[in-house]
Amino acid sequence: MDLNGKALSDVIKEEIAREVLELTSKGLRPPHLVAILVGEDGASKTYVKNKENACKKVGFNSTVMRFAADTTEEDLLREIAAINENDQIDGLIVQLPLPAHISEPRVTHAIDPSKDVDGFHDVNIGKLTKGEDTFISATPYGILQLLDRNGIETSGKHCVVVGRSNIVGRPMSILMSRNDNPGNATVTLTHSRTRDLASYTRMADILIVALGRPEFVTADMVRPGAVVIDVGITRVDAQNEKGYVLKGDVAYEEVKEVASWITPVPGGVGPMTIIGLMQNTLKAYKQKLANRTA
To answer: What is the mean pLDDT of the chain?
Structure first.
């Protein structure tokens, strides 16, 4: 059965919109999210546009700051510093990847942790590791809600994560092992260098795949009845109007016959990533309000 991220995201957007309307009806300004986009990467431009649309849907203010690919790191850092000081801005994301001459770690570390709604700053990653309240990276946050709101039990299950990125794989392994719901799973973190990877994936009650390799996981790698979360999304050349199709890391058509639940691509994890970002922005906004009245 499909884990329909698109349908669930629409439900949660309505919930956020109602909360924002309640806040603004009291005379408060709406939450404000700023996205910085450097260069002309097609996938990044699409993703930022989706964020703009989501902000409009829930009643947020949103600003997209676009910079040429040859923008210097110093200019970008100056802009981030100005945003950090702007009390009218609650959340800031810098769309990745950045051009090669700009250091992603330096840019990430320059963002005020209280506005780091992508959850990439070391302060927020450290809090996540310790189980403290923080901004959870948007994709893992969205996956947690897909599991929770579809009533998928995670406690005592064996969760196998394929991929060790700092954006998805590592935080997902921490979240699934935490003493919470969703969580309390026994977690195995695997990656491209894992020997006999299929022997691990076949043991998974919950299989989360974030490798960036289209249709890498096939039906023979999945235990019958497993829950399969496909994080990957890759443009694959095709003879159609767009010139490409979107493929996940899982061979959907064959794996759906084996899995009990599976996320489609597109329409699975992607919309829920946007939801994670919206919820983090609302959280940053509400924290600012709380600090102001404390």
So the answer is: 95
